[in-house]
């Protein structure tokens, strides 16, 4: 039996503790987080409150609806694309320096915006940054505010007091040194965690991954010991000096000091210029047949909530251009281990080392910023079991785990929604087509042959 939550969102395929859903009137596809209201430590309503506080900020998903449905607490959000962890794994667990620089500015902006609203995130990690969809497919989103905490009193505006002997909150792999030492977290700790994320992208792993211990407490202690014993210069060895400078700055901050976010962004802009990649134009040298130019909006310097990726141009060679017949839309429906949902496949969490080898040589770009992510193969192929595999470069990296028919239906739906934007779906051919596509998506019928040509 179909389940409709909030009186208007028809649930689709269940993925872990979440689902995707379709608005019964507008046919909009959304993400749904579900939590049993009898759970010992419910946090969905708290997270919904945070989304409301942050609403309107660039790179923050919209809270569509939140409430109780039967025995469940339900949160309906914008559907987003893959997490940076998903893309990192798909790229063979290494990002180019250009990619890291592009991501760094947006990620700093997102953290700065959360801080500007009086909150700490306290769980900065690759899984909690997602790419957008469609026209916002080059925008980084920050998600999962279940561990967020106010650092300023809402009435007095005073900073929370310094405390010690606190339990570790967040993900041990990316936790700051002070967090390991039991010190109350503040703005400096979110930024230090981001530094570990950026180095993780550059290095492929961090020195404290893969440590073995009998208990979680012992493992956290080992991670702490290794992290504190690793000098910044050793951690950042073979990488530009700006990354070491980033950590030195974070460690110099006092507990209640406001970070100079602009200084940190300038560090990476200066690095980009020194490497011959200006802030306005970051492109991939690993894409022999596709070049991406990304122009940053200087207005984002003045307002951290303004999305800093202003425009983009994609030039493709003739051998590749014929592949890009689908629109630059992407989403994370059934099978995709996006952080909007809990994947059926285990995604590396907390401090656990992940020993996967990724998905091969390339990313199949569904949006035009993706060629920045290591298109290392001239023919956009990869090798599995010794055989060359040709990937559908338009949507393959988004629809991991989906059957071909479902990929086609989702793509068709996004195409129709974009092409007919502004046309009411209540009557006429548009409604009939969308209803048919939904029927296929919900496994009630099969795709008609006439749609194969779309």
From TrEMBL:
Q: Which SUPFAM superfamilies match?
A: Protein kinase-like (PK-like) (SSF56112)
Q: Please give the superkingdom of this protein's source.
A: Eukaryota
Q: What is its EC number?
A: 2.7.11.1
Task: Identify the residues that the record assigns to the Protein kinase domain, covering every copy.
Answer: 9-268
Q: Which residues form a coiled coil?
A: none
Query: What keyword terms does UniProt attach to this protein?
Result: Kinase, Transferase
Instruction: Quote one Gene Ontology molecular function term.
Output: protein serine/threonine kinase activity
Instruction: Give the family, as the similarity comment puts it.
Output: Belongs to the protein kinase superfamily. CK1 Ser/Thr protein kinase family. Casein kinase I subfamily.
Q: What is this protein called?
A: non-specific serine/threonine protein kinase
Please tell me the species this chain comes from.
Acorus calamus (Sweet flag)
